[in-house]
Write a structure and sequence with these properties.
Blueprint (H helix, E strand, L loop, with lengths): L6 H11 L3 H20 L6 H10 L14 H8 L4 H9 L13 H22 L10 H8 L10 H11 L3 H19 L3
Helix pairs in contact: 1-3, 2-3, 2-6, 2-9, 3-5, 4-5, 5-6, 6-8, 6-9
Length: 190
């Protein structure tokens, strides 16, 4: 079964393989979004677990970008980390780098919001407030349709994630904006 690291242990492990401030910030944003969705979707008792999955989802990206979602499985397995965390974090690379399809609702949420948090964050930074607090769905939808804006955020993955969850794209975007507002309020990160 493996062990579930504490938040502190997960953070230290993440920093061991990722020194880039951007990636560390992204991990914390996704962690917060995952915790938000755990509560919203009725998995509140698993909030910390969902957060750890969010925090560790890009564990291997800093040092092994060419082996993203593959090397992380090896690293976590060698550390005796719970197989559910290994599988969930790896599944966000489905169709891109691995063939591990998101099955559990938590895995589908991670798949859907990973790229979307980046797009929403980029939209927020463009605002005079530099905040998600006054960010509207219509603004994100407009930028979503502009491929050159936040070009690194895959619209295809975001759309596939919404489909996996059985949600309309607009619903996914709106719910993720709300998640990031909470993240921003509690951590100051956008």
């Amino acid at each position: 079964m493996g062990t579930i690291p504490t938040r502190e242990e997960a953070w230290e492990l993440l920093k061991e393989y990722n020194q880039d401030e951007f990636h560390l910030k992204h991990a914390q944003i996704v962690e917060g979004a995952m915790k938000y969705f755990s509560r919203e979707l009725g998995y509140g008792e698993e909030e910390e677990f969902w957060g750890i999955v969010g925090l560790l989802h890009d564990l291997d990206f800093g040092m092994y970008p060419e082996e993203h979602c593959t090397k992380s499985q090896e690293i976590m397995s060698d550390k005796g980390i719970d197989e559910r965390i290994i599988r969930a974090t790896a599944s966000h690379g489905y169709v891109i780098t691995v063939d591990i399809k998101p099955e559990h609702e938590m895995e589908k949420v991670l798949y859907a919001v990973d790229e979307l948090t980046g797009l929403i964050g980029a939209c927020a930074i463009m605002r005079p407030s530099k905040s998600t607090m006054d960010l509207e769905l219509s603004s994100v939808k407009k930028k979503f349709k502009t491929p050159k804006f936040a070009a690194g955020c895959s619209r295809e993955v975001i759309s596939r994630g919404a489909e996996m969850l059985g949600w309309e794209l607009e619903d996914l975007i709106q719910r993720t904006i709300l998640a990031l507002r909470e993240v921003e309020q509690t951590t100051g990160l956008v």
